[in-house]
Specification:
Blueprint: E1 2-6, H1 9-24, E2 30-34, H2 41-47, H3 52-55, E3 61-65, E4 67-69, H4 79-86, H5 107-121, E5 129-132, E6 156-160, E7 167-171, H6 173-177, E8 181-186, H7 192-200, H8 209-212, E9 219-225
Parallel strand pairs: 1-9, 2-3, 2-5, 5-8, 8-9
Antiparallel strand pairs: 4-7, 6-7
Helix pairs in contact: 1-2
The protein binds ligand LXAUTJHC.
Keywords: Hydrolase
Protein name: 6-phosphogluconolactonase
Enzyme class: hydrolase
């Protein structure tokens, strides 16, 4: 596995932001999946400010989410709502490039609609880049330890947060693993211990979806800050 440690979280997200510039210069639509939770907020703020806000050719990038919570976009728990507030409100991007999970809808109907949109829009269901986070329990997207079916053939699924019971829609492990590139962005010392376990233990012996999900035919890499990497 490819672990890349940056001195700070800011340095890690600036590397990702530079790659947004490069992807946006490709002469085709590029499909990128964003992570939710607290970690990527620094990335969204960085992308919304110079030089990235104008250097990225936003019209060439299509944005998706690994998961979202079934709440309205104005709810602070909404992964899409946070990106809208921190990034989309500050740049010029065509509305048709934003492929959000509609958290305000009925979960079963939204699962069907979102699955159809994925199938229709993403060539061969192969994302160019999936950026993931990792919870301190080892979950990624809304794929939680002890409740993830890694063989699920569906592109997306309904998940329930094991503690709060919050309902979510998540990409499936199999869909994520079809990506050309997967980057786990993990920062902060609260994730240091679990990262050490992931680095030192064979993935199949661990219950953590973040340890097991990797690009089957592409690149999998971990972008860490020094605090997260301190036990590696
Ligand atoms: O619940 C979630 O958690 C993970 C990690 O979140 P963080 O707050 O520890 O950064 C995130 O990747 C996922 O998208 C989100 O829904």
């Amino acid at each position: 596995m490819n672990y890349i440690t940056f001195p700070t979280a800011q340095a890690a997200v600036e590397k990702i932001a530079q790659e947004f510039v490069l992807y946006s210069q490709l002469d085709r639509p590029v499909h990128i999946s964003l992570s939710g939770g607290s970690t990527p907020k620094l990335l969204f703020k960085t992308l919304a400010t110079p030089p990235f806000n104008t250097k990225v050719r936003w019209e060439n990038l299509h944005f998706w989410w690994g998961d979202d919570r079934m709440v309205v976009p104005s709810d602070p728990e909404s992964n899409y709502g946070e990106v809208q507030k921190l990034l989309f409100d500050h740049i010029r991007i065509p509305v048709e490039n934003i492929h959000r999970i509609r958290g305000e809808e009925n979960p079963d109907q939204e699962l069907a609609r979102f699955s159809a949109e994925l199938t229709a829009c993403v060539p061969n269901l192969e994302f160019d880049w999936i950026i993931l986070g990792m919870g301190s329990d080892g979950h990624t997207a809304s794929l939680f330890p002890h409740q993830t079916n890694f063989a699920d053939e569906n592109v997306a699924l309904i998940a329930k947060h094991p503690e709060s019971g919050q309902i979510r829609i998540s990409k499936s492990a199999k869909l994520i693993e079809q990506a050309k590139r997967i980057t786990y962005l993990v920062t902060g010392s609260a994730k240091a211990e679990i990262l050490k376990q992931i680095k030192t233990t064979p993935a199949e012996q661990l219950p953590y979806p973040a340890a097991r999900i990797r690009a089957k035919n592409g690149i999998t890499e971990w972008y860490l800050d020094a605090d997260a990497a301190k036990l590696l």
